[in-house]
Amino acid sequence: MDKPLLISIIETPLHPRLSPLYQRLGLEEQQLDSQRKAINALKKAQPAFIVAEFIYAYSTYYQATNISNLDVLLNSLVKYSPESRVIVLVKKGEEELAEKLRAIHPLLDFVTLTSPIPGRNDIEAPMEALLK
Predict the structure, then answer these.
(1) How many whole angstroms separate alpha carbon 13 and alpha carbon 17?
(2) What's 30's DSSP letter?
(3) Residue 51 confidence (pLDDT)
(4) What is the DSSP letter of 56?
(5) Fewer CB within 10 A of the end CB, N or C, for the chain?
């Protein structure tokens, strides 16, 4: 029997490394370092879960059309993998900004991280609850 696939999109050093948790839960993890690579991966396989960081588009020209780094990926899910469950990692203090994304994509799950670099233990328990 194939293990459910989890895609980790690791774009910054703040992304927690939870591979041991994923293995313990019987998930196959695929680590990618960009949204573009994640979208290409969705064309080949439909993951059960996607874990990605929320990076707000503060002062870029994209802000008029995109709220964050996740907009294009989330729009691609509709076509390529609508059943995938997305877990968005939000830095403490940016929860309100992430709510703008939830208004567009209401089925997202959010886990709030503490800044600057969270320890594994403060994210592992809530992450495990979302993955079960």
Answers:
(1) 9
(2) E
(3) 93
(4) B
(5) N
